[in-house]
Amino acid sequence: MATLIITEKNKAAEAIAKALGTAKVIKKAKSLNIYIIPSKNIYVVPLRGHILEYKNTDSYKSWTKTNPREIITNPKAIKKIPISYAYPYINALKEYSKISDHCVIGTDADIEGCNIGLFDALPFVRQGNPHIKLSQMWLSSLQKTEIINKYNNLIAPKYSWGESGETRAYIDAFIGFSATREVTNTLRPLLNKFRIQFTSIGRVQTSLLYLIYLREQDIVNFIPEPYFLIDAILSHNKGTFIAHHQFNPFNKNEKSKANQIFQKIKDEKKGKIIDNSKKSNKRFPPPPLNTSKALVLLTKNLKITANTALRTMNTLYLNKIISYPRTDSDVYKSSFNHLEILKKISSHSQFGNYTTNLLKNNRINPTIGKKDAGDHPPITPLESLEINSPKLENDLQKKVYALLTRHYLALFGEAAIESKQLLKILIKEELFQAQLVYLISPGYLKIAPFLKPKYNEIIQIFGNEIPINEILFLDKETKPQPRYTDTSLLKLMDKNHLGTKSTRPIIIRLLQTRNLIKRIKYTYSITDLGKFLIEHLIKIWMPFLEPNFTKRVEEKLEDIKNKRRKMYDVVNDIRTEFLELFDKFIASKKELISNANNYKINFTIPLTTSNCPYCKTSPMKFINLKNKRFLVCADDNCKKYLSLPKNGKIELLESTCSICKFNIFKISLKKNNKFYNYYLCPQCWNEGFKDNSGKGFCSNCKEYKIFKDDCIKKNKS
Fold first, then answer.
1. Do 502 and 651 sit in the same domain of this protein?
2. What CATH number is associated with residue 137?
3. Residues 233-271 pLDDT 10s
4. Which of 131, 291, 329, 589 ranks highest by number of CB atoms within 10 Å?
5. Alpha helices in 466-524 (DSSP H)
6. Interval 41-57: pLDDT, tens
């Protein structure tokens, strides 16, 4: 009999098959290849992620003829069914299980992968062969040696991990389906004004939206407070530096005091040095990268979305370039072979010299983080690739690979040595202070300059006096907290236990696709629709909005994973708790409807994230006149414009046209009581009018298509 190996994606199946022997390929469907290793009688069947999803049953499909509360109370209201593309995969699982006596779950080695393998795929395997033997292959990379080693050392299936994922999916289904339907039905008259058919509610996404709303309210309602600074610009052998008055900042009630001090010293030309002390400090290398740390690193330095960062790391993993990118661990096991990786990188044109010095000085032990979760090693480069390597498929992959590799090498480096110089200066008996920090020895910062703080230039100060260039009296105002970036949103979600390392980027992206938040110039703010939703829910449904509810869910899911709780016990706990929250919503519906009817909607379109195609320096802003809508350059010296369609709700997308790099717009229209959407690039659309080419409508584009609001190349095959 044969062995059936199930993987989550085609690239993983291909890598496993090639590692285990000479493989033949059988094409079962347009997107399904089966890999056969005749010498070992192995069949490798790839999936396409999840092949099953939770949906409402037929009796609960109607949003108006059924009670949304019953979706929570009636287990028959939802069921798990095959996704539209799943049937070729299901048929393959049944076919090859019939001729196999051993099934190896080789899906991604995390909760989601266990759920896909053990709860999506396994039931169909057992339909074909109820008595098939079951094992799991726990891969941390798709390198040949790793695959062979793990295939020869299979483990018992991690059912509790799969159960944790299944519980999450089921809970999120009955919460999301019931809440989305109830809130939408209640607010439908006003949602129609937004030209949308429904608004999306979920335990993680709605809590995150609430936190983004709170930040936006802090910014909008912020009242600046004046404060005052007295600074001295002092001269040294290489230029100037700034010393600050010891009582900086002076608050609004201390303006008179600050002004008196300034008037006393403003014409002074020399200061007396009363302290010029120095001390050395070590800045140690960072801990290894788990998923959360890697997402923070990439979003901060590359200004990309969290979803893009995770997707790019996953591609690098599937291409056998890095280890598995979904891990909670930032501690390497003592058996991890760093020496092999360092030797590979020692010949690299950019990283080779640094790595050679590491080997020369026997620096082959990395720093240690705080957690060994037992799932996978920290994210690690497995190949030494030059920047022009064809294995790195685009510029973003090159940048991500370089950052991950540099960070990995930094783990072995020496500590950086800093020198802190503290200067205390008297100017007419007024004390000023300056702290200057110099980099004496770069250590690990040589390979990882993106981890370097801002340093001062090393200066020499002789004697007890120092020349004063100028005394400044600065009138300032306090500023609100900044809007969230991808980096700060990830930290916020981690702090509030919203989602997991893998789901957080997806949740942020989901809020964008639902038009509840918008991302402009790397920062997020709430949309009119998001504000409308939260401002109504906040009055009657705070326990659902606050993160504590979803935090408790996450803790219970972790209990299932670690075999402390049973799946059905947790489902019943959460069902009971959410039903109580749901009934509180129902009890306050009249108040909600009354408030909603008095709500004034103001639609706004933000500045584009792409610059004006004419001046190339400034974004464009939306102008709405009687019978015309257009974009005009925000720079008054340019004033060029692009026309927009007259009808429909206009939504600015974060993505850009692959041809001209200008923002894509989504246009929503209502026709025959049904809403439909189309996409256009204003720059191409305006050019199409001029030359009568008709270009600009994305649906007519020959080379590219819009997929999940992104402009991507069409598959020629």
1. no
2. 3.40.50.140
3. 999 877 889 999 999 999 999 999 999 999 999 999 999
4. 291
5. 486-495, 504-513
6. 999 999 999 999 999 99
